[in-house]
Write a structure and sequence with these properties.
By secondary structure, the chain is mostly helical. It has one domain: Alpha Horseshoe (Serine Threonine Protein Phosphatase 5, Tetratricopeptide repeat), CATH 1.25.40.
């Protein structure tokens, strides 16, 4: 059933837009803006802080991610950093403390982290929700495509790559890394 749904979305992408207006994502940028298109900066979050903590440059300390001194942008960057460091469970702890709701950027990383923790079906649902919110979210399309490569669904991954290009993502990390994953079978972790 899930494969049929994935196939339908790849062949008829307008169905994945049905639940959203295509509006922007809070601070996440649909085309990989806000630093999403490059590896995140390594900070003390991934080097010194405990699970559920984020490094805060102002206080020069690791703070609980649920604390009021942190912004969702700080939490989001910590999620990306920990995901890139291969710590999806720690990143998920922080993602769950974000207060902006189910925005495209939150759902994109929800899908990525669930996928990396072995919850593939739930990850697919989160990617689909991110794309329903923002069909031009090339980072979500990249991660979805990476998953499809891992599932040996190359035609469906190619459909996501085509959508990345159609939404202006040519030349971005999202396009290059998915094209490489399709060509080589090697996927990426951020």
């Amino acid at each position: 059933m899930r494969l049929l749904l994935i196939t339908a979305i790849a062949l008829f992408p307008q169905f994945s837009y049905a639940n959203g207006s295509g509006g922007g994502s809070s601070g996440g940028g649909s085309s990989g803006s806000g630093g999403d298109d490059e590896p995140p900066k390594v900070t003390q979050t991934s080097e010194d802080c405990k699970a559920g903590e984020v490094w805060d440059e102002k206080t020069e300390a690791c703070l609980e991610s649920s604390g009021s001194l942190l912004t969702d942008d700080q939490r989001y960057m910590a999620v990306r950093e920990l995901a890139y460091a291969g710590r999806p469970a720690d990143a998920k702890l922080i993602l769950d403390t974000m207060t902006e709701g189910k925005t495209a950027r939150v759902m994109t990383y929800e899908g990525f982290l669930l996928r990396k923790m072995g919850f593939v079906e739930e990850g697919i649902a989160a990617y689909e929700e991110a794309l329903a919110i923002d069909p031009a979210n090339i980072l979500a399309r990249n991660y979805y495509g990476q998953l499809l490569v891992e599932m040996d669904e190359i035609e469906l991954a190619q459909a996501q790559l085509d959508e990345i290009r159609a939404y202006g993502g040519a030349g971005t990390w999202s396009e290059r890394s998915l094209a490489n994953a399709i060509a080589t079978g090697v996927t990426y972790n951020f």
